[in-house]
């Protein structure tokens, strides 16, 4: 039997679970992050938070704003600022596409999760999304409740 061990590098460091409820995700893009050493170590501990963060285009670059990566405990004087702006690494074509969709169609760039890929690099899953109205949120809540109930009924019946 060939059992595959779970890769310690390939894990989620932070997830914005409320984003899929508040926004209608149109498209997603994987972006790299410019991080310092203590930020990477802190992300590996999984204490980061991207709930209130967003991405914005400024000066031909895309920035992740208001994301919280706590200070690394053993970092002493080399530590980073927890809420600093972090530059996203994207190709020029991807940046242009993001800026166009934000400017033209009135969409926003919402970070969905920060994770480590197979090579151990920190990546950000960035969504191009449209904000949901209150009735849309209610509809997705009804759908979620129905799916849960449906699963419960199917489990009971066999």
Automatic annotation (TrEMBL):
<keyword id="KW-0963">Cytoplasm</keyword>
<dbReference type="GO" id="GO:0003723">
    <property type="term" value="F:RNA binding"/>
</dbReference>
<dbReference type="InterPro" id="IPR020081">
    <property type="entry name" value="SsrA-bd_prot_CS"/>
</dbReference>
<comment type="similarity">
    <text>Belongs to the SmpB family.</text>
</comment>
<protein>
    <recommendedName>
        <fullName>SsrA-binding protein</fullName>
    </recommendedName>
</protein>
<dbReference type="InterPro" id="IPR023620">
    <property type="entry name" value="SmpB"/>
</dbReference>
<dbReference type="InterPro" id="IPR000037">
    <property type="entry name" value="SsrA-bd_prot"/>
</dbReference>
<dbReference type="GO" id="GO:0005829">
    <property type="term" value="C:cytosol"/>
</dbReference>
<comment type="function">
    <text>Required for rescue of stalled ribosomes mediated by trans-translation. Binds to transfer-messenger RNA (tmRNA), required for stable association of tmRNA with ribosomes. tmRNA and SmpB together mimic tRNA shape, replacing the anticodon stem-loop with SmpB. tmRNA is encoded by the ssrA gene; the 2 termini fold to resemble tRNA(Ala) and it encodes a 'tag peptide', a short internal open reading frame. During trans-translation Ala-aminoacylated tmRNA acts like a tRNA, entering the A-site of stalled ribosomes, displacing the stalled mRNA.</text>
</comment>
<dbReference type="Pfam" id="PF01668">
    <property type="entry name" value="SmpB"/>
</dbReference>
<dbReference type="GO" id="GO:0070929">
    <property type="term" value="P:trans-translation"/>
</dbReference>
<feature type="region of interest" description="Disordered">
    <location>
        <begin position="137"/>
        <end position="158"/>
    </location>
</feature>
<dbReference type="GO" id="GO:0070930">
    <property type="term" value="P:trans-translation-dependent protein tagging"/>
</dbReference>
<keyword id="KW-0694">RNA-binding</keyword>
